Structure to design on (541 residues):
């Protein structure tokens, strides 16, 4: 039996686009002599559809497209993900289903049984879990068809009571099929491989895994569909692009060499891909960002130019009286190295005008964070004016370390349509800068080596307000990603007062993050949809 792995990029709610894409790959599979074409989870609707699924009209349109796709199943069988109605009269209105299309119609619906409801996933909000488990025979082969999470209940890591694969194994299948919409995060590939190796070895069957690629706002889907064999070997498809492979169950393909991932290279590719996808799917071409001469804006500028083309990225240099000449020079040098357009728009006169306007109210009160924030907000105003006038999407340049502790100005440097490095700690930003400069100097060396500073007051440095980033980032990572408590952190050797200070900053600045742009997700726990904390709370605040 020849099985085509169809790793495609779909667009949530763009039914015509998705149908044409699926039909294109069905034709490709048919021409390659495949008996079965396998597509990702919810590929007909796009993933995630979120509250679109509350509208009957949305589901009806998905099912209409499924009927059209089924018309192409006379000469080849198809497995494709689609929401379907729950007709049992019990539970939620919908199932998350794998449709089996044969002979011009849908012959089976396999309903996802294990519905993830953690981190970014919220599937039990919309779907009823499937409770019936049976294999499907196609081309003389008995297939155990599962949907994403249905295979993740493995020995020693039981997240659910039910075990769909254990139930399906009773029918002695020949192949395990898993269709998925599994987003990228650093280290996720290794976790998937562990899961599929476990099932392949346990049941002595090949596992055919088909994952979507593309991005939906902050979620980036890497693809990397694969076939895993009982001996642990595997064949993996490309990351961050559409791909296609035909697997003959009678002939084991040449295995992919064991992958030792360069995480920073993957993160670079993921962010470039995420930017490009965001702009393409929203129908925009041009971006704008503030260039400060610092490491964060430099990295974002490089990523944006790679994703969109240098001709589509504009940079604004907005110096104040506190801006150093070397920062202005570094920003201009970066723009020159990238070949991107840049303009210098000083904020000094605007700052003076605001101060003069407020003088009758502020009187002789000393310069403090108020005046610092006025500068940041003036820059935000100018960037949004540029965005409005020329139709550019504003890229936010704040990093995860700053977002975590509230080291940013609401409606100032925190504004934007997309946060590019909002899920990268400051130390990772430096790693990414080094990777960008791996072949030649693009980011000026002075930008990398100088002490980071917001330059909102004389001789300001980040270290005046924050711990050294190598210490701060490790505490943040353990607290946010690994949910280590203050007691756990202290037991690891971190200073008690420092831990209390950092945890308090993280928790009391949640209100700022609620008002931040979506950040491209590259970690296991990003701010935004995957981390839900109360605002008016006392814990560690």
């Amino acid at each position: 039996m020849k099985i085509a792995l169809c790793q495609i990029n779909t667009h949530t709610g763009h039914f015509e686009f998705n149908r044409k894409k699926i039909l294109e790959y069905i034709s490709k599979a048919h021409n390659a002599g495949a008996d079965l074409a396998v597509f990702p989870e919810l590929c007909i609707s796009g993933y995630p559809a979120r509250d679109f699924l509350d509208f009957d009209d949305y589901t009806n349109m998905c099912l209409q497209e499924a009927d059209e796709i089924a018309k192409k199943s006379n000469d080849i069988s198809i497995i494709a993900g689609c929401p379907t109605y729950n007709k049992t009269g019990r539970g939620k209105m919908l199932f998350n289903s794998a449709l089996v299309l044969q002979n011009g119609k849908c012959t089976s619906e396999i309903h996802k049984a294990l519905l993830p409801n953690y981190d970014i996933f919220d599937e039990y909000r919309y779907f009823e879990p499937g409770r019936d488990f049976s294999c499907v025979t196609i081309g003389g082969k008995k297939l155990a068809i599962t949907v994403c999470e249905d295979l993740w209940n493995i020995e020693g890591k039981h997240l659910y009571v039910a075990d769909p694969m254990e139930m399906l194994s009773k029918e002695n299948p020949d192949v395990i099929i898993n269709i998925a919409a599994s987003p990228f995060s650093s280290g996720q590939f290794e976790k998937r491989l562990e899961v599929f190796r476990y099932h392949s070895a346990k049941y002595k069957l090949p596992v055919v895994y088909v994952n979507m690629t593309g991005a939906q706002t902050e979620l980036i889907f890497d693809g990397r569909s694969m076939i895993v064999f009982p001996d642990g070997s595997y064949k993996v498809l490309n990351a961050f692009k559409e791909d296609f492979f035909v697997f003959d169950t009678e002939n084991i393909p040449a295995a992919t060499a064991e992958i030792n991932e360069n995480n920073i290279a993957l993160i670079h590719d993921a962010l470039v891909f995420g930017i490009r996808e965001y702009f393409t799917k929203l129908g925009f071409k041009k971006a704008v960002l503030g260039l400060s001469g610092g490491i964060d804006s430099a990295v974002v500028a490089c990523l944006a130019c790679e994703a969109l083309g240098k001709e589509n990225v504009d940079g604004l240099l907005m110096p104040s009286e506190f801006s150093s000449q070397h920062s202005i020079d570094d920003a201009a040098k970066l723009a020159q190295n990238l070949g991107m357009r840049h303009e210098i728009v000083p904020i000094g006169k605007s700052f003076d005008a605001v101060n003069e306007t407020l003088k009758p109210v502020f009187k002789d009160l000393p310069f403090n964070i108020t005046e610092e924030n006025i500068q940041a907000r003036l820059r935000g105003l100018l960037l949004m004016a540029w965005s409005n006038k020329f139709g550019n999407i504003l890229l936010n340049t704040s990093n995860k370390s700053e977002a975590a502790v509230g080291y940013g100005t609401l409606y100032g440097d925190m504004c934007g349509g997309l946060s590019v490095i909002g899920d990268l700690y400051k130390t990772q930003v430096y790693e990414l800068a080094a990777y960008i400069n791996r072949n030649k100097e693009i980011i000026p060396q002075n930008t990398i080596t100088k002490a980071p500073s917001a330059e909102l007051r004389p001789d300001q440095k980040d270290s005046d307000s924050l711990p050294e980033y190598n210490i701060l980032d490790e505490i943040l990572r353990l607290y946010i990603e690994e949910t280590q408590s203050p007691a756990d952190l202290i037991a690891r050797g971190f200073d008690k007062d420092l831990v209390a200070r950092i945890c308090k900053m993280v928790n009391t600045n949640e209100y700022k993050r609620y008002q931040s742009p979506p950040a491209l997700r590259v970690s296991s726990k990003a701010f935004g949809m995957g981390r839900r904390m109360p605002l008016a709370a006392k814990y560690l605040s």
Remarks:
- DSSP finds 16 helices and 19 strands in the chain.
- The chain has two domains: 2-251, 266-462+510-514.
- The mean pLDDT is 95.
